[in-house]
Amino acid sequence: MQIEQTGLDGVVILKPRVFSDDRGFFLESFNQGTFTELGLPGEWVQDNHSFSSRGVLRGLHYQYPQWQGKLVRAIFGEIFDVAVDIRRNSPSFGKWYGAVLSRENQQMLYVPAGFAHGFCVLSDTADVLYKCTTPYAPEQDRCILWNDPDIGIAWPIKNPVLSEKDQKGALLKDVVLDGT
C-alpha cells in the first residue's frame, strides 16, 4: 500500500497494490497492521455502500460532536471526492482537497475526523464504499452547503442533483464547532 500526502493534514490518498492478470485483478483494500503502520485507523465500526447516477452530488457531510473518519473508494464508476477541513483551530480551516476515485485507478481517500466529506458522480453510475471510524448517529448528522463561496470547491459538474438536506446545508461561517 502506497500513501500520498494531499496538503491537508491527515487527508491522504491510498494506492493499494493491484495484482492483475487475464482473469481480472486482486487487491487488499484494508489490512489492520498496514493501516496502523501508516498512522491510519486500524479499527472501523461501520461500512456503507452508496449507489448514485451521473450528476448526483452528496455532501458536504460530517458528524458532530462525535466526529467520524471515513475511508472512501469507488468500486464501480468514477467520482470526484472532496474533504474540507472544518477544524476551526487548524491552519487549513476551510481549505479543501479533491481527487478522482474510480474502479480504474483503485485509489482510496482517507478523510479524518474534523473534516466534512462529499462527492459527485462523473460516470453514468457509481458504487461508493466507505468505512467509518464511529457509528452513524442521525442526531449528530450535519451538512455544509456544497457550493459555499467561502470554501470555493471547484466541482467538475454543473447543476448537480441534490437531496433536500444538501440543498439546505449551512454556510461554514455559521457552523458552531465548540473546541475545534
- Coarse structural class: mainly beta
- Work out the number of β strands: 13
The CATH architecture can be named as Sandwich
Order of helices and strands: EEEEHEEEEEEEEEH
Give the averaged pLDDT, no decimals.
96
Identify the strand order in the major beta sheet: 1-2-10-7-12-5
**DSSP helix fraction:** under 10%
The poorly predicted ranges are none
- CATH class wording: Mainly Beta
What is the molecular shape?
A: globular
Provide the domain count.
1
Proportion of β residues?
35-45%
Please report the distance between the alpha carbons of the first and last residues. Answer: 31 Å
Radius of gyration: 16 Å
CATH fold call = Jelly Rolls
Largest sheet: 6 strands, antiparallel
Can you count the helices? 2
CATH superfamily: Jelly Rolls
3D structure, described in words:
Strands 1-2-10-7-12-5 form a six-stranded antiparallel sheet, with no helix packed on it. The chain is mostly beta strands and 180 residues long. The longest helix is centred in the first third of the chain and has 6 residues, at 32-37. It contains two helices and 13 strands, in the order E-E-E-E-H-E-E-E-E-E-E-E-E-E-H. The chain is globular, with a radius of gyration of 16 Å. The chain has one domain: Jelly Rolls (Sandwich). It has helices at 32-37, 164-167, and strands at 2-5, 12-15, 18-21, 24-27, 46-53, 57-63, 70-76, 78-85, 96-102, 108-111, 115-121, 125-132, 141-143. The two termini are 31 Å apart.
